[in-house]
Input
Amino acid sequence: MKTFNIIALFIAIFIFSSCEDVIDVNIAEGKKSLVVEGWITNKPEPQFVKLYYTNGLNAGNNFSMVNGATVSLSDNAGNTEVLQEVTPGKYQISAMKSIEGRVYTLKIESSVGNYEAVTEARRVSMPIDSLRFKFEKKSTIYEKEGYYPHSFGQELEGKGDFIQVRLYKNGKYLNQDRDFNLFEDEFVDGNYIGDAELSVKEPFVKNDMVKAEVWSLSEDAFRFWTDIQIQLQNGQLFATPLANTRTNVKKTSSNALDVVGYFGASLVQSVEAKVK
Output
């Protein structure tokens, strides 16, 4: 287990998807901070922004939520929405969806201070057109025997694109440390990406139904998830010192509590396949 110098962000990072699973870590006591987490996408399902406080070492996963805040979302096309608090600390985005090229501004006015986050919805630059699976025996390369996913798709021309691929097994989001798949187009711009193996902690078995979601990312969001990936995989013998994960949430009032977390915008494309 790792001891983290910064707190609840690493427990809650995977709640940015609709999944509510959390990561078990030991965390050092530290100064209380506000956590902002949320994402706006084009998926036909409710989107939320969650506000809560970081936890101390012995607090478990029962986070203190920040209720009664005024949370608004606007874009650079003139659209504005005030989010509704559906449960304590959970604010629903009802009308707005992520649109390519739009810049979104989240504003928070709360009892612990005022905050703002700005994010851009980028194109899905590396859509996956198909998934295939290869059976691998246990070896020095593969720790476990099973079927490993490979993706195929055309990367769109124009450098500066970033994506995250999220995998689901029989409807369950895979969110362990080795399930991270982040890609940038620096060396593959405009190429067809064939037979790219996706990382999984547990290989699949026959008849598993697998869904791959491609989430478009801004460079800032890509660096945020890269920070998370480094922290999760930072248990090796020569591990680097832990550092604060970046955030795009800024304080806009002088007396505001320190803040961690991220608010992002993505377009999401998905493909499904059965392991045969």
In short: The helical segments are 9-12, 219-232. The radius of gyration is 19 Å.
